[in-house]
Amino acid sequence: MNKKIKLSLEARKNRLRRRMIDALGESLGALGLLAAATVLGALFVYAYSAIMSAPYFSIREVSVRGVKELTEKDILAVAKIRMRSNILSVNTDAVAKRISENPWIKSVYVGRELPDRLVLEVQERTPVALVKQAGALYLMDVDGFVFKKLSRADEVDLAILSGVDVRAKSPSVLVGEALKLLERLSAADQHTFLGEVSEIHVDEVFGLSILTDKGLHLKLGRENFAGKLNQLHVVLADLEKRGLKNGHLFVDLADISKVTVQRKDTLGKAQDQKKGPQYRI
Please, what are the domains in the chain? Predict the structure, then answer.
């Protein structure tokens, strides 16, 4: 009986010894991993510090591309980039955000050309019209976005869009049509008889009206602008044959089947004025 007890105690001691050895091995393994991680972390911090302080990665050049209305100096002033700072430490998103605060900027890309060049590539807004509201003028781009109030520094010679709400978040369909019409008239040689467009009035109910520097006041309505302008060419040719083309004319083309022409002594009188001779074509 005593022999069996001794054997049992011996077995328990052996199991306890194995468990202690296993636990010690696991602890030593964990300590080894921790030591390795510490060494690697220290090496990473050292390498990072060495790279971030290396003169090799100091900014020596900032290249600004895409400027037209703005200047390189304008972009650098808002970018606030410190020369000789480490190129890898530059927060490109923050730089892009600062540049985008200029109303002329439509989009901007900030990139690195290692080891020492930072690239600022901007896309400016292209103004195509002036928007008149409450006695002030605003610049509108090709997308119909009103992006800034006109200042003395803005050297532009553009047609005016009236009847447009500068506070609108997106342009109406009719405003989009007005911009397309303005582009078509400025690019097409077949409409040189109109002269330069000085103003397009947008009315969401009655449509578009145009004033030109040749004294034409055209009421175009809401659709088929190309067809109406072609019809206008015929109307003006007919008036010239009659000797009635001289002077300012108001031409109602809203209904292309019955074009009405009225002579006006001064540009900009009310469209519905009925004084003076009228001609129906």
Answer: 55-124 (3.10.20.310), 127-280 (3.40.50.11690)
